[in-house]
Amino acid sequence: MAYQTIRQEYLQIPVVTRAYTTACVLTTAAVQLELITPFQLYFNPDLILRNYQVWRLITNFLFFGPVGFNFLFNMIFLYRYCRMLEEGSFRGRTADFVFMFLFGGLLMTIFGMFVNLVFLGQAFTIMLVYIWSRRNPNVRMNFFGLLNFQAPFLPWVLMGFSLLLGNSIIVDLLGIAVGHVYYFLEDVFPNQPGGGRWLRTPSILKMLFDTPEEDANYNPLPEERPGGFAWGEGQRLGG
Predict the structure, then answer these.
(1) What pLDDT, in 10s, does the model give residues 107-165?
(2) Predicted TM-score of the model (pTM)
């Protein structure tokens, strides 16, 4: 019975969020069990181009370090904000969501070559948080019960938190920059005088991922609880 309940809850997670978070957890588990090492996963343009180790283009987004506070912190934020985007502004638009992943990953990989980062998963998480926060500007957040602010400030608060922990903020700045590029091209520029839509999801992605019918029994995660935990709880203004 417990297995069936867990399986049902797992299958109710939207497909892209489920696939990505599962891949991240399995990759970390494989490293912990010493089945693979981080040296086989990290982003290295020379090995990719000269030795054709193309898997590094993907695996560097899947490893968040050994199991510990930093890993759990990143996994919680990745799961929550990835799921809320997929169930919110990308509801019924799985192909567009996958295209956002591909666009963000490509841009981040290009930028990553110039900032000497070997793992880009945390920056990708910040990108997701940034896009969600800009699309939900009226949500008030609570961080660790200490700070109250509106959602668009969340990526900057997380960057400050990284700074307090002694981590490099280059990762956060990269995620914010890529998130802003996507947000501007997708949500801002098309609505400007003389603007237009530059980002168009390829037809092949729509054929592969978009389905005409939705599951009537599907229960989305409420966006009214954006942080999900004490460090990221929130509520909509006027709600």
Answers:
(1) 999 988 888 889 999 999 999 999 999 999 998 988 777 778 899 999 999 898 888 87
(2) 0.84
CA proximity to 23, closest of 6, 7, 41 = 41
Distance CA(123)–CA(129), nearest Å, equals 10
Are the C-beta atoms of 63 and 119 separated by less than 8 Å? yes
Report how far Cα 171 is from the mean position of its chain's Cα atoms.
Answer: 13
User: Residue 231's closest CA among 69, 63, 65?
Assistant: 69
- Based on its alpha-carbon atoms, the radius of gyration of the chain, rounded to whole angstroms, reads 18
| Exposure class string for 53-79: b at 16+ Cβ within 10 A, else e | eeebeebbbbbbeeeeeebebbbbbbb
Measured CA to CA, the distance from residue 99 to residue 103 in angstroms comes to 6
